[in-house]
Design a protein that fits this description.
Four copies of one chain form a homotetramer. In chain A, about 40% of the residues lie in helices and about 15% in strands. With about 220 residues, chain A is of the alpha/beta class. In chain A, strands 3-2-1-4-5-6-7 form a seven-stranded parallel beta sheet, sandwiched between helices. In chain A, α1 crosses α6, α3 runs parallel beside α4 and α4 packs parallel to α5.
Amino acid sequence: MKESVLIVGAGSGLSASLALLCSSKNMKVVLAARNIKKLDSLKKEIGAETIRCNASDIKSVSNLFKKTDKIIGTPNLVVYNASLRFHGGITELDSKKTQAAINVTCFGAFLVAQEATRRMLKRKSGSIFFTGASASIKGFAKSSVFAMGKFGLRGLAQSLARELHPKNIHIGHFIIDGAIGYKPYGSYQTINPDSIAKTYLEFYNQDKSAWSWETELRTSVEKF
Amino acid sequence: MKESVLIVGAGSGLSASLALLCSSKNMKVVLAARNIKKLDSLKKEIGAETIRCNASDIKSVSNLFKKTDKIIGTPNLVVYNASLRFHGGITELDSKKTQAAINVTCFGAFLVAQEATRRMLKRKSGSIFFTGASASIKGFAKSSVFAMGKFGLRGLAQSLARELHPKNIHIGHFIIDGAIGYKPYGSYQTINPDSIAKTYLEFYNQDKSAWSWETELRTSVEKF
Amino acid sequence: MKESVLIVGAGSGLSASLALLCSSKNMKVVLAARNIKKLDSLKKEIGAETIRCNASDIKSVSNLFKKTDKIIGTPNLVVYNASLRFHGGITELDSKKTQAAINVTCFGAFLVAQEATRRMLKRKSGSIFFTGASASIKGFAKSSVFAMGKFGLRGLAQSLARELHPKNIHIGHFIIDGAIGYKPYGSYQTINPDSIAKTYLEFYNQDKSAWSWETELRTSVEKF
Amino acid sequence: MKESVLIVGAGSGLSASLALLCSSKNMKVVLAARNIKKLDSLKKEIGAETIRCNASDIKSVSNLFKKTDKIIGTPNLVVYNASLRFHGGITELDSKKTQAAINVTCFGAFLVAQEATRRMLKRKSGSIFFTGASASIKGFAKSSVFAMGKFGLRGLAQSLARELHPKNIHIGHFIIDGAIGYKPYGSYQTINPDSIAKTYLEFYNQDKSAWSWETELRTSVEKF
């Protein structure tokens, strides 16, 4: 049977690269996003399925996995790529939007991991990967919203690695330290999403005798 | 004018010790909690004010600060001590309770910090302290709920330290690595809340030439 | 009997502040340094003893403690403050000087901790503190020499905290994140050594129910 | 021209796996160790060169690189794999052996990195990898010797990553969290060195748009 991947929070950057790479390795691809229209050309290019999903909504995530069950069964790999970020000094931030951002960046990952784990434990194998950011390990000034979400996501990933690695479910947390893109952003070098996707796949193919749970990726010229 | 402290998430352990210590240093004390009945004897003992508050509710926190304004004006010290934790494997956890726990442990701290900062920036001084746990820096197996909340809280605190220290608002994050209590819990040594409170007050009295933003506290016999 | 402190790597900055503060708390002070001439005025001011010592030399450290035994017996507090640093790209650095720097910054701390522990274990109490730097947790470009020494020192301190806290010997590691001084250095704010010394003494007086092993200190306007 | 690798501190475990894997990828292999007799069969198997070297000795490392120059020129990849460890409470440890251990585990890495960088900067490319351990990030009780060496090594690696990544020299630091072996050690699962070697090679082949500098590897059943 073909291996399969479910990417939640799919868009045009890293998730598109991941979808293309997985597809090139003969994996069946399902893409979930709030707005699936933007996924149309990718869908056609690789024969992926797309499912509308609000990753921070309990019911929506439950439905996502029920639909995924019918298309590919239990995915071999689930990638949580959704996040919501905005900057601002603590006194300028909107409270409701802040709560919504924590829900997308962190709580949604919990929901997706829960549904994925329920299925993977039955099959006794699987990989669940989370996309982090510089803000996963450093709380920058005026970035408290993103720091709460991404620190929280890292706490989830680390806890799940300890719980699930012994059950043959591989957890990966990737700290993407910089903006993703194919071209420099002015004088700023961006991280090529194809290169990131390659590292995700290498993690996915690690032997369980030597599993990583986390790595950082940045351009060679990034200050850190 | 008397210095003052607002403790959010007040109960019988650390927050009571802090209230007593602050009061003994001649500070005016306001205690906020969902259930303020349990604070009655403490209230009488030190002449504190108590305010009912749901720390994860936007409106409730807004009201808390309006009431506090009338009683003590802008507090010199605000301590966020609220948290909600429960254990369980990822597949056993209730999604709604998990979301509520993140809201109390992390989002409520954001709300309280926001209201406090608005006032402290006008006065150009203040201290905002957050109570962390072992789970702030280590995601234990079956502790994903607490890890999400406490990692997120630490991200908030670190981000605020970078934003607000230059504006003369001192941020403190305390990793309390163990159970708090006055007596051993079976063979397990607990951390004396009076000793923790002492360290909070020492942080509060640090000169801004040499501010800490974080420290860990555990018993001398704790494994870590 | 009077409490006592031994400060190794004593000079004019933090160690002088510590010596003065300890003396003001009625502690007997012994100061050790390669060059003890520079300690003359401090020695007179507080009635301290000074001992010549090369902290990275096995025999010299052994002699230091034998002399200290006769003057104050086993010190209640031992502070390791010696370090050797210089900057430079990896290809420009002198190998022998690099080795000497690691020996002073890290290996010497081991020697001092070993001699101190031998004595403190007999008395069943004591505190051993190590002075770290920004380089203890961040390896800056062109700072590999200092990073090796200070990372290594932190590894020593953390290991000793795990070994010795249960034996009632308190280990403290202080990350001094910035230059120490009483006046700004151009537009750069320095950390007041008296303020640092105050935090050392507060650590020293912590109750063993709630021991820290590490904290960071920086000015309120420091970027980090 | 063939790519090449120099492995310093070569023995029978990880370094042998790395040598075999590099050789299978058509890389020329040079192995350096204090005792090169033990490398004889590996040498024959893959047509490697072996060079006697004491990695903590300035002159010996200088000679190693002069010999390497003649055999393979500037290596594309240099791996520092040497370390010296022993356990013991702080009061039981031998001071001279402790110093020697720091020299092998940390200072020798500096020497090797320095010689390698001098050459790689001229060619404007290269990779320098360091083998870490659990003790690189956690100072265990009675493990102060190894903690000093491995923390120090990590400080070196992080500093060099910041200095040399912008100059197209890729630094890798690998935290091998557990014992290496092909078979369980009693009930204890070991990390397969072939699996570790695979991750080293994937790092080596990373595109500089998305470089890691560090990752951790452990078995799926390791507690951490």
